[in-house]
Amino acid sequence: MKVAIIQFPGSNCDLDTLHVLNNVMKVKADLVWHKRDDLRYYSAVILPGGFSYGDRLRAGVIAANSPIMKEVRRMAKDGHPILGICNGFQILVEAGLLPGALLRNSSLKFICKWVNLTIVSNKAIFTHNLKKNHLLRMPIAHNEGRYFIDKDSLKEIYKKNQIILKYVDENGKATESANPNGSIDGIAGICNEEGNVFGLMPHPERASEKLLSPFNTNDGIKIFSSMIDYINRR
Amino acid sequence: MALIQNMKTYLVKVIIENKVNARDPEGETILKDLLIKGGYEQVKAVRTAKLLKMWVEAKNEKDAKEIVSKLCDELRIYNPVAHVCSINIEGE
Asked: Is this structure's pTM higher than 0.90?
């Protein structure tokens, strides 16, 4: 098993993700430049966080047109796990691999803080090991994280259990103050209909070692280990 | 022998803005904290947008507009879920 971590110009969470996969999860992973067009030897793909192309035009849109995305689409279609973290989520949305849009935070500010999240659905490959309503702590760090989707499509993604993560308070309640960026219904992460493509604004790679957490938690591991279990069973 | 077409350069303006049901906090802040506070209560709403100016070589206005319309859809210059995109043309 080998995981591809795609590097775009401006990616900056690529090395953190590589570190967690190699040293925490003990999984082989490679950094793969976005101009490559072959991912045949990989079991899964991670689009890491950062500011691809300096967020020009709109976060993620230029990277969504990179040569590697053709191969990412092919892997998504073949059922391989595809994970988009923060800017990676924005890229997946702009590539049309996930529904909706990520707009500028309603506060108009870049937000960098730890948040509480609840598992709404364990349909995604990345959450299938977790129970519904399970609480996770992870940090967010973004300027364009306000998830938006039209009313009809929102109903549709509810019906198909594609809403995976929501921002909540420490008691697991969805409140307005627990929603950091004005996302519709406090949505923090969604998956595609098949459950193999997952995008989230929080950073599991920054929450996978107790040393790095103000709460002595390592909840990010749960996302990666669900993915790894799935690949091993596949 | 093929005729050499007279190509002209057209200025095409692409305006990308949030759909009405997608909040525009920047527009809201400009209205609330600048215009209203500055005494311009006649202004009832503000929406911000992104303007792209493209200089396009084409045979005529219609072709120039078509090229830009195609590229906007193909390269996802706007996100159809959240944005509306309008294309205006000026000859040069």
From this structure: yes
